[in-house]
């Protein structure tokens, strides 16, 4: 495990309570979940998980009920005498490795044998219960005044047309489809259409570069790529089709043949005629998809059939394909959404995340739609045309639940209260935060200014891997402490372990693990089950290891303190240091690079890169620019380093391991806290680095 000094965590806030009475902030029809009810339900969820989750699952439609066991699991090979045939029903062709083992570490299955479909449960089921004319999606375009909406009936029609189109074009159950779209309605439509026919979607955030997209295409070999010609974000136009063209031409050299690129014309960003076109391969969505029938039979799938793949950063250069399956994910996102936001049928819900990340999967698309909610989907950026846009949208749609990231809160806070207070915001009743620890001053501003001191904040801790919320307040159910994600969700047993893996009790700080499986847990890393076992289940045998540090206070509240591995959290986006390093090293003039995260006022953390140029190359501003460009083109603009620090050499141990602890101190200019540097192969490099700090 990497070195980690818990006392240095900037985010541990001073203790302060904000007492919320359970009733004042909740809607009048609320069946408020008081603390004792939580405790009762939590106790049951731990003592009788089968009964608890069966009850939750009974709200959904099952073509066939699951086998006798709700969950089978084995988080520890040492405990393993489970002998279960894994994955008979997994049709995903690349998953053979997952089938043969029968004593997998980290193995868990939920609702195995149950037959269902998540798209059916999101749409048809809600329509059958009388919600067909309810708005499913309010879409707000980048430009104020450009908007659209779809009822549940209309959404189902659109999803069915696309599902039929995909089937007609050869997409079958178990095939993968890459979706590279901005926040257009076509994005959730595409996800749902894949789910309807049992295809596995892999959404790639439209901020990723051609090279990142290509890497993902090569990894999961989609039959079809769905994109749009361009997107306008704020005043900037991004030509997505060019990026896709470049990714596809490269991946075809690597033996992947994507037969079809379905392109939605986003004419407010770019005219169709201006779009480059490859006749044999490209198809306009608007021309072809509407010709298909609005009725499409559901492909009934096993509860353990894969639903989607989502790539996320890890501590090596290669992104990890996190694989989620159907039923457990469905029940978990639905239940977490309902309880953590105290959801009511009358709510209007807006989550600012992009569907390219897990938050968009679970809490823009699946969780809310499973609950029959009305969701706001926003195409643009939060400060366009000015920093009041979010509150303009809140007032326009009468948003009641607003879920966002601390980085956005901090950036709007910097723009001043006036942009907020000029809007009413009186519809708001619950606020949410996700992506990184929320610092207490941002928390208070969010609570006092945005929420007028009346809306509780659900600070939800979870991960791509966990599928849904793991530690989160339930609004109004207990006193909040700014900066604490409070208590575990139903069925989740967090444990804090020391570096030897020993579970600690009571007040403590250490590594955050989870003891038993929960329905939303991912099942494997696509194509690399071994990496799944070693990354998550071998550091602390018997537990799932989150990669986060955590403190539990004397009242039992959990305080997340940030990543303890080589992952940086920039504006709530996970970026692996190794990925950025390999992008830098791919530059012909870069000999070596080491990247660390440094605290940043708005982004939470920013990327700080130490670079050694190849012999004979001089340090220059131009070289800095071209190194940053190399990261932009390899990964995407969001991963661009904020600072390049020239390094004649890097601090390494005698065995050649880079001492990032020292680099972090230099980067944050905590020069009197460098600690013992005598174990370095060459202690002089530290002085050289300090001397070059401002060059
Ligand atoms: C949902 C999401 C996961 C990492 C996670 C942690 C950080 C997320 C947090 C939080 C403190 C919260 N994180 N929510 N830290 N408090 N409420 O963001 O998934 O992109 O996979 O990132 O984000 O470090 O390990 P993902």
Automatic annotation (TrEMBL):
Keywords: ATP-binding, Ligase, Nucleotide-binding, Phenylpropanoid metabolism. GO terms for molecular function: acetate-CoA ligase activity; AMP binding; ATP binding. Pfam families: ACAS_N, AMP-binding, AMP-binding_C. Pathway: Phytoalexin biosynthesis; 3,4',5-trihydroxystilbene biosynthesis; 3,4',5-trihydroxystilbene from trans-4-coumarate: step 1/2. Its EC number is 6.2.1.1. Residues 131-517 form the AMP-dependent synthetase/ligase domain. One of its GO terms (biological process) is phenylpropanoid metabolic process. Residues 38-72 form the Acetyl-coenzyme A synthetase N-terminal domain. It catalyses: acetate + ATP + CoA = acetyl-CoA + AMP + diphosphate. Residues 579-657 form the AMP-binding enzyme C-terminal domain. The keyword Metal-binding does not apply. Gene3D superfamilies: 3.30.300.30, N-terminal domain of ligase-like. Belongs to the ATP-dependent AMP-binding enzyme family. PANTHER family: ACETYL-COENZYME A SYNTHETASE, ACETYL-COENZYME A SYNTHETASE 1. This is Acetyl-coenzyme A synthetase. It comes from Mikania micrantha.
């Amino acid at each position: 495990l990497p070195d980690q000094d818990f006392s240095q965590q900037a985010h541990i806030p001073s203790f302060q309570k904000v007492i919320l009475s359970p009733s004042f902030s909740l809607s009048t029809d609320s069946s408020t979940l008081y603390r004792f009810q939580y405790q009762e339900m939590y106790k049951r969820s731990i003592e009788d998980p089968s009964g608890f989750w069966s009850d939750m699952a009974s709200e959904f439609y099952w073509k066939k009920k699951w086998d006798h066991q709700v969950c089978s699991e084995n988080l520890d090979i040492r405990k393993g005498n489970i002998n279960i045939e894994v994955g008979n029903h997994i049709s995903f062709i690349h998953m053979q490795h997952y089938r043969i083992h029968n004593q997998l570490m980290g193995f868990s299955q939920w609702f195995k044998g149950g037959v269902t479909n998540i798209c059916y449960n999101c749409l048809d089921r809600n329509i059958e219960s009388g919600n067909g004319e309810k708005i499913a999606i309010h879409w707000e375009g980048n430009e104020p005044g450009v908007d659209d909406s779809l009822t549940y009936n209309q959404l189902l029609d659109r999803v069915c047309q696309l599902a039929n189109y995909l089937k007609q074009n050869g997409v079958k159950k178990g095939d993968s489809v890459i979706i590279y779209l901005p926040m257009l309605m076509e994005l959730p439509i595409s996800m749902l259409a894949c789910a309807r026919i049992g295809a596995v979607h892999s959404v790639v955030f439209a901020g990723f570069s051609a090279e990142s997209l290509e890497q993902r295409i090569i990894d999961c070999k989609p039959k079809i790529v769905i994109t749009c010609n361009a997107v306008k974000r704020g005043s900037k136009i991004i030509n997505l089709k060019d990026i896709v063209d470049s990714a596809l031409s490269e991946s075809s050299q690597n033996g992947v043949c994507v037969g079809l690129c379905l392109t939605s014309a986003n004419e407010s960003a770019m005219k169709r005629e201006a779009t480059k076109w490859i006749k044999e391969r490209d198809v306009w969505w608007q021309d072809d998809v509407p010709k298909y029938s609005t009725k499409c039979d559901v492909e009934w799938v096993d509860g353990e059939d894969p639903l989607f793949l989502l790539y996320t950063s890890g501590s090596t250069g290669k992104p990890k394909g996190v694989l989620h399956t159907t039923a457990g994910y469905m029940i978990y996102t639905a239940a977490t959404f309902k309880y953590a936001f105290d959801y009511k049928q009358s709510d209007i819900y807006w989550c600012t995340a992009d569907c390219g990340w897990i938050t968009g999967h679970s809490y823009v698309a699946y969780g809310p739609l499973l609950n029959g909610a009305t969701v706001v989907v926003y195409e643009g950026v939060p400060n366009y045309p000015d920093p009041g846009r979010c509150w303009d949208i809140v007032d326009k749609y009468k948003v009641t639940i607003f879920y966002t990231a601390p980085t956005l809160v901090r950036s709007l806070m910097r723009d001043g209260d006036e942009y907020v207070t000029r809007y009413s915001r009186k519809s708001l009743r619950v606020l949410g935060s996700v992506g990184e620890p929320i610092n207490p001053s941002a928390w208070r501003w969010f609570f006092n200014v945005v929420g007028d001191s009346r809306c509780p904040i659900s600070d939800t801790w979870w991960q791509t891997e966990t599928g849904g919320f793991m530690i989160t307040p339930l609004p109004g159910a207990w006193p909040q402490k700014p900066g604490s994600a409070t208590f575990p969700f139903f069925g989740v047993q967090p444990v804090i372990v020391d570096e030897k893996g020993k579970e600690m009790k009571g007040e403590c700080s250490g590594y955050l693990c989870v003891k038993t499986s929960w329905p939303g847990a991912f099942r494997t890393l696509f194509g690399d089950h071994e990496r799944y076992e070693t990354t998550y289940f071998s550091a602390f045998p018997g537990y799932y290891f989150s990669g986060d540090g955590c403190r539990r206070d004397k009242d039992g509240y959990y305080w997340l303190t940030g990543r303890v591995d080589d992952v940086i959290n920039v504006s709530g986006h996970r970026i692996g240091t190794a990925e950025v390093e390999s992008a830098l090293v791919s530059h012909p003039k870069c000999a070596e690079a080491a990247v660390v995260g440094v605290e940043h006022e708005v982004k939470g953390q920013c990327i700080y890169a130490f670079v050694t140029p190849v012999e004979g190359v001089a340090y220059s501003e131009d070289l800095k620019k071209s190194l940053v460009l190399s990261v932009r083109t390899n990964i995407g603009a969001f991963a661009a380093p904020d600072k390049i620090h020239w390094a004649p050499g890097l601090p390494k141990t005698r065995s050649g391991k880079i001492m990032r602890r020292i680099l972090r101190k230099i980067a944050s200019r905590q020069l009197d806290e460098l600690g013992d540097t005598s174990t370095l192969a060459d202690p002089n490099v530290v002085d050289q680095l300090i001397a070059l700090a401002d060059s």
